[in-house]
Amino acid sequence: MSLLITGLLLWCCVHLSSAVVVNLRARLVAGMGLRPYRGCFAFLIIISIVLMVFGWRAVEPVAVYQPPDWGRVAAYVLVFFTFILFVAAKRLTNIKRVLRHPQLTGVTLWSIGHLLANGDSRSLILFTSIGLWALLEIILINRRAGIWIKPAPVPVIRDIITVAIGVILYLVLLKLHPYISGTTLI
Hints:
Layout: H1 2-20, H2 24-32, H3 34-58, H4 71-89, H5 95-98, H6 102-117, H7 121-145, H8 156-181
């Protein structure tokens, strides 16, 4: 359990540090440069993910609650939308006209889906922590960024391409999920 919790703490601390400590990112970039800063940030995030994956796999799951019978289906649907939102976050799409934070919204959906499908201790720790982090990040970003100005509309073809890329990534994840989590999907 300690690897899982260490990974979660590292993930949250690295992501939240610039939102909580005023001008931390600017000071670090000024001191080391943008590329080294991004490299360090990425390295720490990768380490946190590795710790979470290995920590997850090392913990013997203990039942905490019984997920609903429809929980697995809901998880498939929510994770499907998660991938579309992740892609939308990096592209000019009309989705950004509806959601200010598509990627963080996707993380929240991912967390909820997994909590509906899994009722064990390691799931409760991992998915609740990541979901709460995403919601806190949305609040902190909104507070820092101020009033949301919706982007201009873009051609619908951009949304269609975004959905297509999201579907492909989702299908790839379905194949890789057992290798990442050590659990089968069906």
